[in-house]
């Protein structure tokens, strides 16, 4: 049989490829700092207690496994939209936000991209000059082009706000602008609230379409409202953002593939049209979304005790990340005679360390410390068990 003899071996995925290499390593102290999935202080995967309890409640209900419908569970969509835009959202009270349940953040980004490819006149998505490694692949695979605007300033390990605003001003009017709602991946650099206002002003002046990826609501600061500031600001400014929402990180539902896509439209009638077309895109691809994660999310969101416990667990997770940032900064400053202020200035799951590619390679080859080649450290993978080892190995490289 020669059906596939012409198929060439493809390159491994940047992140999942590293995870594979990590699994294969026999080094006794190996550390995986590449993967963005929360770990507890002992380095173990963490299932939220509110989710474990929701799971029991749902099991006891003896529910069926019928299809959810193309747009998913109505309760899930309603709650996800409220969590994203806030109870007092003008779009929600007017009934002009189209929401569908999606296959987590990635599925939502892909669905939005196919919608743009079919219905939006501009076919380029502009993203920050560093962004999550999968963004451009998703856009291209949906038939769009991907291009960049200035964002990260290497000299300060912070935001180049002037450069960003300048680029946004110079792009063709009506461009699709991808923004990270909070906890920018990979840089950990978020605009301040004032900078978001400035960004909103330019987006409005230029008639750009804000395409907001919200993968870390509540996971950045531990506060759901604060992490949704940008989305809510832009919506209240009348900008009609398209928002992709993931429940992977904040509810720990990684493998359950739970999320939503929200398209703010101009009227209820427009929303109905948009909704009908999104369903037409869903039907031939995955037909309808997975039900288990959505049921769990709704249980946590609607059960007062579980909701309270969720808020507390968000604080625990974001607090542990913040403790690890302090420990990493202190360790490196003690051992290298350099200042590392950006480690605690950055926010969210990742630290953009400033380590160069050759240093990252040495860490992997000599010490079995795995991270992406841009020097991004997954803070959630650091724990009391491995931080000393990581600090010592990085310090050895630098002195
Ligand atoms: N967007 C960003 C910025 C991310 O970091 C991630 C996950 O790492 C996602 C989207 C999508 O994640 P998922 O598809 O697991 O919800």
UniProtKB/TrEMBL annotation:
Its cofactor is pyridoxal 5'-phosphate. One of its GO terms (molecular function) is L-aspartate:2-oxoglutarate aminotransferase activity. Its EC number is 2.6.1.1. It comes from the Eukaryota. One of its GO terms (biological process) is L-aspartate catabolic process. Belongs to the class-I pyridoxal-phosphate-dependent aminotransferase family. Homodimer. This is Aspartate aminotransferase, mitochondrial. The lineage of its organism: Eukaryota, Metazoa, Porifera, Hexactinellida, Hexasterophora. The chain holds residues 26 to 424 of 603 of the full protein.
